Amino acid sequence: MAGNTFGQLFKLTSFGESHGKAIGGVIDGCPAGILLDLEKIQSELERRKPGQSKIVTQRKEPDVVEIYSGIFEGKTTGTPIGFAIYNTNQKSKDYSHIKDSYRPSHADYVYDKKYGFRDYRGGGRSSARETASRVVAGAIAKQFLKDVKINAFVSQVGKIKLEKNYTQLDFSNIESNAVRCPDIEMAGQMEDYIKSIKKEGDTVGGVITCVIQNVPIGLGEPVFDKLHAELGKAMLSINAVKGFEYGSGFEGVLMKGSAHNDQFNEDGTTKTNRSGGVQGGITNGMDIYFNVAFKPVATVLQSYETINKEGEKVTTQGKGRHDPCVVPRAVPIVEAMAAIVLADYMLLARSNKI
Amino acid sequence: MAGNTFGQLFKLTSFGESHGKAIGGVIDGCPAGILLDLEKIQSELERRKPGQSKIVTQRKEPDVVEIYSGIFEGKTTGTPIGFAIYNTNQKSKDYSHIKDSYRPSHADYVYDKKYGFRDYRGGGRSSARETASRVVAGAIAKQFLKDVKINAFVSQVGKIKLEKNYTQLDFSNIESNAVRCPDIEMAGQMEDYIKSIKKEGDTVGGVITCVIQNVPIGLGEPVFDKLHAELGKAMLSINAVKGFEYGSGFEGVLMKGSAHNDQFNEDGTTKTNRSGGVQGGITNGMDIYFNVAFKPVATVLQSYETINKEGEKVTTQGKGRHDPCVVPRAVPIVEAMAAIVLADYMLLARSNKI
Amino acid sequence: MAGNTFGQLFKLTSFGESHGKAIGGVIDGCPAGILLDLEKIQSELERRKPGQSKIVTQRKEPDVVEIYSGIFEGKTTGTPIGFAIYNTNQKSKDYSHIKDSYRPSHADYVYDKKYGFRDYRGGGRSSARETASRVVAGAIAKQFLKDVKINAFVSQVGKIKLEKNYTQLDFSNIESNAVRCPDIEMAGQMEDYIKSIKKEGDTVGGVITCVIQNVPIGLGEPVFDKLHAELGKAMLSINAVKGFEYGSGFEGVLMKGSAHNDQFNEDGTTKTNRSGGVQGGITNGMDIYFNVAFKPVATVLQSYETINKEGEKVTTQGKGRHDPCVVPRAVPIVEAMAAIVLADYMLLARSNKI
Amino acid sequence: MAGNTFGQLFKLTSFGESHGKAIGGVIDGCPAGILLDLEKIQSELERRKPGQSKIVTQRKEPDVVEIYSGIFEGKTTGTPIGFAIYNTNQKSKDYSHIKDSYRPSHADYVYDKKYGFRDYRGGGRSSARETASRVVAGAIAKQFLKDVKINAFVSQVGKIKLEKNYTQLDFSNIESNAVRCPDIEMAGQMEDYIKSIKKEGDTVGGVITCVIQNVPIGLGEPVFDKLHAELGKAMLSINAVKGFEYGSGFEGVLMKGSAHNDQFNEDGTTKTNRSGGVQGGITNGMDIYFNVAFKPVATVLQSYETINKEGEKVTTQGKGRHDPCVVPRAVPIVEAMAAIVLADYMLLARSNKI
User: Fold this and answer.
1) C125 is in an annotated binding site
2) Which residues are registered as beta bridge partners of D101?
3) Does D337 have pLDDT greater than 80?
């Protein structure tokens, strides 16, 4: 399979290149009877949209979703939801600097090798523009999930790292600043840092933390399809992601078992939550939380040496309007993929018992 | 789906509980014509087997694989390879301490909630014993992969961490010590530490690093099925895993794009390899490398408080023969899952072009 | 899964209701490098289109396909091909006669029961309009298949049945008449019969025969995914289909094995072809041929009694512009599904051997 | 995929060659909490077993199923059910007559072409012996389905055809005779005919009719995974099957729509049932019924000409103990596949609505 479908029962199939006519997708398996708030879908797209603040790319793309099917009299019908987002920014540009040469740490080289040629306009299919389709599907999944609350936020930009635990944070602050960090003071530092990086024509990486609350007990298919394994795959499939950890994560390695184990309360909740809400691949009702590491964006607005198709050295100048740091705009994408996984596993869990 | 199948074209379906009659599986999609060395399959199982050294569980399980189908005159036939490993250690034991109470940070509680009841004998399906089936499938995948070299090793135990880069290590040392760490000196320190932890009846976590070399260019299905996303899911599906990072991983977050980007040589290789051999989800021919974080084993041989089915507090004593640290025995499991993913994507890549 | 995806490696995901904004789909897994003739795609749609002759429905729908992605500089890129066909005939009509009552032998009743409510406008998702998406995917599959020739034709309408074997027919006659029957004389009889049925406001069933030539040897996955089993499913998934048989089919039941067996020629071809080009689920290089039975269209332009949502008897008058016989327009749909199956199994077969 | 898995949520993965060590499979996705009657599983295998009467093959195979996992304290646990049936009849035989030559209308030739070589012992993977694994899975599916009644029976052998509708038959007669035909008189005629065919060393085809009663409304995923399409694929995947029709089937072609339509009663049932219990791919609660056509067994105990691997003509003598007519033993296989499809769609239907 060419890998453009995600999910088993709640499924998103995505299509589209950054500079083709449109991107979009089909959401199949969404249960019937959900009263959909279409404005909420659009508002999630606004959170991902370029041009929303000074620390993100200044490209102008309206990103208006057009829904073709699957909804009738305001409610999902159980049939597939087809949708498209037109690429308005499609005008013929000068792509000569990327047409014949390979940008370092981009997918240009491997696409050419794998497929024999590539749509070189602005990254084509490998562009993060594809994630807009995920945000649409995630916004619908969220409405199906109803009481389950999914909050992602920026917890690190370069070396600037939020040391507070998520329980000490006020999620209502997330959207109050351009970075999407719930700690206002840290958000200010991060924003300043991103601005300084942008001035250099350079980029920087970051970490997004995601917290899922009010999760039903019993989601997750043990063995290969453990809930956290699917969440990990979902996150690692987002452009620029280099790492995923949940619960105690890489830090947990340092602990002894006697200290790491989550002791039970009498109601089945646990006193600590190093398990991150998942035990043996199945939710135990505690909060799910995980971190996602994003590398610095590969497109730097500097001059660099690279090779062309013929394997000759060429010097190129990075140009265009790019994000100096991807994490602020990636927050809604992380939430969307989390929502899709949760919706899918919610449906899968319906077949557990007689 | 109940999640006991992994892979799209090279597929493992696994079955079995730790104390049922047998565990085993079916490998479907293995190409025809591979001359199988059956001893190599068994020797991979020996690497995972309990009782192989003083720092692993002292249980005695011969773990002999019996192959039922799919091989004729020494070669794979293209038909499914069914196999079983009998559970010889199946004698009726005293399970009263886990039958009615829930071990902290195990899957006991969630299985009861999800399925209504559980096979409480030694962890049942949630036991890491299941991974023996993965090792069988991985050993066959390795023989299909031929020139691709997969080497995993222990790079961290608790706080003791290998600081050397994998290129500075001699992989031929991996099997020379009980820890499976290629740096002999560090291996000694790790072994001593595990022994001291064992004496306390406690456990500790660790990290396994895996390096894949001689990888063909062009493996990986962009978007949702990026190669590293599938590798991540494969690793996160292994018992006790809490995190996955590839290439520059979580460290990459700290770098600027201009420094992080891998510059090309004229032959298409790159001067650095922060991409970890994968760009845009597709292999570029450079080494793939990644880290997998394992939490400390939940079973500690100490007394602890927990709850029973009725939600009442009970005090229990951990007993049995358990691993004080899971990473030495998990090395062949990590390699096996890597091999399965690579074999699967090798077959998938055959449909790229006309 | 909600069942809107067909295929394993060459996959069509379809969306859309008959009276929503648009129908369409995503073709995933199409190999890169196919020089696509877009006019051929449109011309296949013309073959399926309403209003093309006097014996089909007189509705006017231009059925113009708009392709959003997956093609660059005239060639497939290996990325998903998203497309839509706008529903131009979407004006607000009077649906009162089907909104609250259930048309006999339609899907109205079961959709209401399954999903709680339904998009009652013109059949919604259960409308055969959905098959236009299949025709688009089939037209692309055909271009991938190149030398494989797929010819479907009408071989029976009501009692009027072509007794000639397909080898006695001239396929170039198929498109010469409105019925799509290669025997001109029989085509005339069938056309007259359909016209007389239409006058009565009634409908009639028919059979489509499909012949696939120049098939490579070795397509088909034995056991559950036998080639003819997948072809059967593909055909049975087309609206109004009630039966499928291949090779000797139901007639073969009457024969003795000694007479039914296909004896070999020295070059591996067979003297007879009762196997229909498939043995043990795998193609043997001989022609594949099969029959598909279509029931009479359920919508009759007569008055009939039925029930409403409340289970009360109501009398209704069938109206609108409907096909008196579905088979002439179903010919390209049968070909399309055959092409999709063949393309899919062509890709699957690439993983047979080392 | 190599096609050895059937089902989406209730899944059977099958393995094994006719003369390897064992055949068997893994049933994944069976809900937890089913109190399994293991004797019923074995008794279904007895119905399929060779040597049970004078009109079937006289081979002796005990066909005892050994279950390895997935059951605890008599109940399914929700984990995969692994099982094997040892091949006791495995002794080294003289296969020289099929090792180097290709039996007509068998899979020998295509396996060699597809995979490069084949396990030539008794048909290997292409042997109908594989269907024993399906019977095990079907027997478990039946116990999950509980109130749903599945009855298959022989309705035709060669030209001898049951003209009665299934509603006129007494299903309790099915197991009373060796043919498995509920009409005792017809059963006698069929039995005599099969005996006479056997004497000639020849074989004959037949039809099995299957009736499914007490089906819940709403099973079936519209569009590609219509219930009858999946049933069709399930049946066409059984060895020797050449055709499938449901409801009015090929006969329905002859009718006019006004006569073919099933008029509603006030309770939502229909006065007639030409739809065969399925409308638009979804069950409407009426009986499901369908016919499956089986060709005459290809192995005839006569002398015949064929070719060897080198493409040279050779004369061979059919030998061994083979079924003169496959339908009596195929009755439990048809029921098993129907049960697997129903169980699978029962689970899928759980995700229809919010």
Assistant:
1) yes
2) D308
3) yes
A118/C72 Cβ within 8 A: yes
Residue B291 or A123, more confident: B291
C23 touches chain A (CB under 8 A): yes
Contact D354 A31 (CB under 8 A): yes
Q: Using DSSP, state whether C134 is helix, strand or coil.
A: helix
- Closest CA–CA distance from residue D313 to any residue of chain C (Å): 7
The C-alpha of A74 sits at a distance from chain B's nearest C-alpha, in angstroms, of 30
Looking at residue A345, its amino acid is Y
User: Taking a C-beta distance cutoff of 8 angstroms, is the pair D278, C243 a contact?
Assistant: no
CB atoms within 10 A of CB D76: 23
**A311 in contact with chain C, both atoms CB, cutoff 8 A:** no
pLDDT score recorded for residue D148: 98
Interchain contact, C78 vs B353, CB within 8 Å: yes
Q: How far apart are CA D155 and CA B272, in angstroms?
A: 71
Pick from C79, C144, C351: which is nearest to B347 by CB?
Answer: C351
Q: What is the dihedral of CA B8, B11, B17, B19, to 10 degrees?
A: -160
Give the model's confidence band at D92: pLDDT under 50 very low, under 70 low, under 90 confident, else very high: low
**What is the largest distance, in Å, between two alpha-carbon atoms of chain D?**
68
Choose, out of B14, B21, B64, B68, the residue to mutate when testing the contact with D (most D CBs < 10 Å).
Answer: B68
Q: How many folded domains does chain C comprise?
A: 1
Question: How many of the other CB atoms lie within 10 Å of CB of B62?
Answer: 12
The per-residue DSSP string of B97-127 comes to HHHSBPPTTSSHHHHHHHHSS---GGGGGGS
- On chain C, the residues whose CB falls within 8 A of the CB of D110 are 217-218, 220, 279-280, 282-284
Residues C351, B350: C-beta atoms closer than 8 Å: yes
Point out which residues pair with D243 in neighbouring strands.
C245, D293
Residue A23 sits in a domain of what CATH number? Answer: 3.60.150.10
Examine the pLDDT at D103 and tell me if it is beyond 80: yes
Instruction: Inform me whether the C-beta atom of residue C333 falls under 8 Å from chain D C-beta atoms.
Output: no
Domain that holds residue D179: 5-351
SS3 of residue D189 by DSSP: helix
* Distance in Å from the first CA to the final CA of chain C: 33
Contact call for C31 and B354, based on CB within 8 A: yes
- Cβ(D45)–Cβ(D35) below 8 Å: no
- D21 — contact with chain B (CB < 8 Å)? yes
Phi/psi of residue A231, each to 5°? Answer: -60, -40
Q: pTM score, two decimals?
A: 0.98
pLDDT per residue as tens digits for the range C262-319 = 999 999 999 999 999 999 999 999 999 999 999 999 999 999 999 999 999 999 888 8
Contact flag A9-D351 (C-beta cutoff 8 Å): yes
Tell me how far CA of residue C185 lies from CA of A63, C149, C177, C182, C207, in angstroms: 57, 25, 10, 9, 17
Q: What is the mean pLDDT of residues C339-347?
A: 98
Q: How much is the pLDDT for B319?
A: 80
Kindly provide the ipTM of the predicted complex, given to two decimals.
0.97
Outline where DSSP puts E strands in chain C.
Answer: 5-6, 11-15, 22-28, 65-67, 71-72, 75-76, 81-86, 149-157, 160-161, 206-213, 241-246, 278-279, 282-283, 288-294, 303-307, 313-317
pLDDT for res C97: 73
Confidence at C251, pLDDT banded by 50, 70, 90 = very high
CB contact under 8 Å between B261 and A207, yes or no, is no
Task: Confirm if D341 and D142 have CB atoms less than 8 A apart.
Answer: no
More confidently predicted of B43 and C96: B43
Instruction: For residue D263, give the nearest of D254, D274, D271, D255 by alpha carbon.
Output: D271
pLDDT of residue D100: 86
Cα D281 to Cα C110: distance, rounded to the nearest angstrom: 9
**What pLDDT score was predicted for residue B132?**
97
